[in-house]
Write the structure tokens for this entry.
Amino acid sequence: MTAPDPRRWWALGALVFAVLAFGLDVTVLNVALPTLAVDLHATTSELQWFANSYTLVLAAGLLPAGLLGDRFGPKRLLVAGLVVFGVASVACAYAGTPELLIAARALLGVGGALLVPLSMSVLTVLFPGEERARAIGVWSAAIALGIPLGPVVGGWLLDNFWWGSVFLVNVPFVVVGVVAVAFLVPNLPGRPGQGIDVVGIALSSAGLVALTYGLTEAGERGWGAAVALVPLLGGGVLLVAFALWLRRAAHPLVDRALFRSRGFTWGAVLATLASFALMGAMFVLPQLFQAVNGAGALGTGLRLLPIVGGLLAGVQVAERLRNRFGAKVVVATGFAIMAVGGVLGTTTGATDGYGFIAAWITVLGLGLGFALPPAMDIAMGSLDTERSGVGSGLLQAMRQVGGTLGVAVLGTVLNAGYTSAVDVTGLPPAAADAVRDSAAAGVQAARDLPGLLGSVREAFVTGMSATLWVSVAFAVAGVVLTLRFLPRRPEDVVRAESGHDYVAS
């Protein structure tokens, strides 16, 4: 058995710097959108494409990036991804038109697609089974930390500098990341002779783009809108075609044997469920803090930090419990804790202070720390080192779709609950439509109609309660699926201990 690389923890530190920039960029754009609408004279459609161009390119690039990492080795492509991310960040900062910013955001998606799966594939190679869960926990926390830091840093920068500064904030992380990866991450061999499945890349990329776009539009316009339904159906057809193609391809992009592994299949499914909950919470909570509590961008980011604190604490506690009880018990407990946090959240009232909200979102974060890293570790433990790039790309693609689905589904429930509960009696039709559109629009309208504000806040809390009950249902499903299907430990640990090559059960 090969001894672990002595530099592995330093290498993890380098990867943390690399992915922290990615996590920041997930939310920092949202803070700048109102300013961009004015300074760049951007239309509503262009504002949407500032986000969509990045998300869609990211979805399309995850599997091809993993394949390239397997073929040429992940280190040089990680450095290339960081450089692309840095150059694209500068291009975003100095884009003078909406079209240039959309193009720069698409380039940023290319960098992100290289960063995420390849950084995770490095963890699979560097860390033995018993340490990999801790490394994945640190890696996950770095990305999660960037999400609330985005509004915090972005809000402060917008208060003190011009809008381009919210993109330039990525550059220091990129510079440190490039230097750290270059010196601290060892050169891992690739497979230069590995074939490239061009048809598989085309089908999977097009399918993921269509599905992600359809889910995004469904969250904005409703599930019955043609602009959502057509790409959803088209994406589903393309992904089915991709699955069928894998049966006949000479060098398939994804080895079908991977899905015969219970560890990878159910680890990935449960990690996707946890991502559904995380991104859904990150969609609902900022609106709660802004519409109900009256917080600005900076205050919203600070109020989200308890989720990350809970996640960090959960990772530490879960690691100790896992050694004694196994991953199956720990992940199931994590989903159960998330369900408890969601139930507590459903009791939130419009007049409740931040202390109670901070308590239940900390519980949510704690559950995520229990559930997400061990589930990802079980999935990654099923990958051999030669296919870790594509495997991690597939895992991240599933999580990306799961997060987008979470925003779309929970956003639909939230909007339905809010719209049915808000009282617009006596308002002119145009004003009533604006108030029903969103809680943010309702708060804006209430500046001229002070009596409306209480109804808007109560209606939002009603919609949020319905949303959290849906999240609770998914968390309970996570408990059941974990106990029924998830192996106790990663397959590589079982193989190493037994001396046999078999699937853990």
